[in-house]
Amino acid sequence: MFRHVVLAAALLVAVGARPAHAQAKVEAGVNFGWTFSDGVSGNAVTVPGVGVFDRVDPKDSGSLGFHVGVLVTENAEVGFLYSHQFSNLVLGGTSDATCLPVAQS
User: Does the residue 15 lie in any domain?
Assistant: First the structure.
């Protein structure tokens, strides 16, 4: 694990150390971390044999993503952004129930 962290840090330093005069027309990046999520509440719904639920919350979990963009002028960029959170939905109310994952990978 430590070796992976050192290699990732070395890669970031190598990518970030390009000369200032070599301004690129394409920007790309990755992000990863922990996402704190909040859900919604509403009218209570009774599910027979399971309970009464009035909240739907995604669990806090890890997330990752990437982005790519092309500079069309000095002040404008056209790009693509993707992000994924590894989470399950939790129904809350008189009892808690975990639903299927938000997105199947």
Answer: no
- With the CA atoms of 74, 80, 86 and 90 taken in that order, what torsion angle do they form, in degrees rounded to the nearest 10? 100
Answer yes or no: is 6 within a domain.
no
In a domain, 83, yes or no: yes
- Cβ pair 59, 34 in contact under 8 A: no
pLDDT tens for 56-99 read 888 888 999 999 999 988 889 999 999 988 888 888 888 788 87
Q: Which three-class secondary structure string do you get for 31-76?
A: EEEEECCCCEEEEEEEECCCEEEEEEEECCEEEEEEEEEEECCCCC
CA dist., res. 51 & res. 94, Å (int): 6
27 vs 68: CA distance, rounded Å: 6
**In this structure, is residue 17 part of a structural domain?**
no
At 70, list the tokens: 């092309």
Identity at 104, one-letter amino acid code: Q
pTM for the full predicted model: 0.53
